[in-house]
Specification:
Number of domains: 4
Structural class: alpha+beta
Helix content: 25-40%
Radius of gyration: 22 Å
CATH architecture of the largest domain: 3-Layer(aba) Sandwich
Number of strands: 16
CATH class of the largest domain: Alpha Beta
Distance between the termini: 24 Å
Strand order of the largest sheet: 13-10-12-11-15-16-14
Largest sheet: 7 strands, antiparallel
Number of helices: 16
Strand content: 15-25%
Length: about 450
């Protein structure tokens, strides 16, 4: 626990209501959504404006105290678990202002604690569209989305968080303000520091403000649900849609295990006998939507879809997408431990990756429910187990090791959107190179010579 002197200093700086030192509070910020051991921090502080945030970072730097920045803690790779017991957690949940929504120049300026879904709703009131939609959007924050480069269901057509960051303000390890990017569409003033901060997982600085690109909303959309007897046919259909040069805004996959469990919970009327389903949405100009929907339906039938269902109204469409968004929380209820992965491969390799995941699950006798963003090759094999059963959990670990090997051999990646944190850091060199690790560590040491910003995450320092 932090010294009483440090606690008093922070209480004067931030107000007593924004400094948390009780045992119960500290335990609440000792873990995130990854299956990793919790680490209880020494103190938790919650600045409510940029000046307080700068002062907090400066105070910790001057005292040589490691810091971990945390939004809602929905990340899945250990990125917001404190490094050690001396760590102070800096919460950004007190920085919640939407500072500007500019309808003329199509951008917004927000603080890092703004909730993603709430931001999208505010933007929509101005008839604008913020496309990134991570599965955790109802609770995740913009700052966390940037730190992890969060993706989402619409990533196939609209891209991910990095595609919407025009500029940032952040504090470096010493508490000095750094500004990068602009409100303009083009900006080449200095290094692309915003690009460096994206997916840096709190290891290079503490975000205080973001300039985000907005776009006009699509004028029309159409959803389809395609039913398949087996996973492979569904995987081939995904590859076929991309090969036909159609980019749906959303192209999602659920296997039978996930379908049944989600339908049990949501009563969405999913086809429980299906080996797999694809949930697809095309959007844009009404005429383009008609053409794209017809092209997609043709590919689905050519790839042995047993049925293609078009929702009759907005309510039915919402029910389908809500069922997809419930995949993880429903699977997480099934066993004591849920290990959600996000191995990602080039889209043409989806059939091979799907096949490998099922073979690996059978080989190690582990239960897997697979869903995910099939259209961008981002699969979420979800291992259901009980970590207390050491023999079972060891089989899960072996299965995950082999799954990552397959993904890398297929020219894929360890993580499409969940980040590295500490959960995946041991595999980093396998995907990249020893030189990559050393370069990254030198970069970190140059920017953070005391090694205080989330020290053990990504490549360590």
């Amino acid at each position: 626990m932090a010294s009483q002197g440090l606690i008093s200093d922070f209480e004067q700086m931030l107000g007593k209501e924004n400094v948390f030192s009780s045992e119960a509070d500290l335990q609440s910020y000792s873990y995130d959504s990854a299956v990793l051991e919790p680490v209880i921090p020494s103190l938790v502080v919650r600045p409510t404006n940029s000046e307080q945030l700068a002062a907090a970072v400066t105070k910790l730097y001057e005292n040589g105290i490691p810091m971990t920045v945390r939004g809602s803690g929905t990340n899945l790779s250990g990125g917001t678990i404190p490094d050690k017991s001396e760590t102070v957690v800096i919460l950004t949940t007190g920085l919640t202002r939407i500072l500007e929504i500019n309808s003329n120049d199509l951008y917004a300026v927000v603080e890092p604690g703004v909730i993603t879904a709430q931001f999208a709703q505010e933007v929509a009131k101005s008839n604008l569209f913020y496309p990134p939609d991570p599965g955790s959007q109802a609770v995740s924050t913009i700052g966390g989305n940037i730190a992890e480069n969060a993706g989402g269901l619409r990533g196939l057509k609209y891209g991910v968080t990095k595609d919407y960051v025009m500029g940032l303000e952040f504090f470096d390890a010493t508490g000095a303000l750094v500004k990068t990017g602009s409100r303009t569409v083009k900006c080449v003033t200095g290094y692309n520091l915003a690009g460096m901060m994206i997916q840096s997982e709190g290891t290079l600085g503490v975000i205080s403000q973001a300039i985000l690109k907005l776009v006009p909303p699509p004028k029309a959309s159409r959803a389809l649900m395609a039913v398949f007897d087996n996973i492979q046919n569904a995987a081939e259909a995904v590859a076929g849609i991309i090969a036909a040069h159609v980019l749906p805004c959303t192209l999602e996959f659920l296997d039978n295990n996930t379908i049944v469990r989600v339908d049990d919970f949501t009563h969405a009327g999913l086809p429980r006998e299906a080996g797999a389903i694809l949930l697809i949405e095309v959007d844009g100009h009404p005429a383009q939507v008609e053409d794209d929907a017809a092209a997609v339906e043709k590919v689905l039938k050519e790839n042995k879809a047993t049925a293609v269902h078009i929702p009759k109204d907005a309510a039915e469409k919402f029910k389908l997408w809500e069922a997809r968004r419930m995949a993880l929380p429903v699977l997480a209820r099934c066993r004591p431990t849920t290990v959600l992965e996000d191995a990602t491969v080039p889209r043409s390799q989806i059939p091979a990756m799907m096949k490998a995941v099922n073979e690996i699950a059978a080989k190690y006798k582990v239960e897997v429910g697979t869903f995910g963003h099939a259209g961008d090759g981002n699969l979420h094999p979800t291992f259901l187990c009980d970590k207390r059963d050491k023999e079972e959990y060891h089989r899960v670990e072996l299965a995950i090791d082999e799954m990552f090997d397959v993904a890398i051999n297929l020219q894929g990646t360890l993580s499409g959107e969940h980040g590295i944190g500490t959960a995946k850091s041991k595999w980093m060199e396998k995907e990249t190179s020893r030189g990559t690790i050393l370069f990254s560590q030198r970069l970190r040491r140059a920017l953070d010579p005391k090694g205080l910003l989330n020290p053990s995450k990504l490549v360590g320092i």
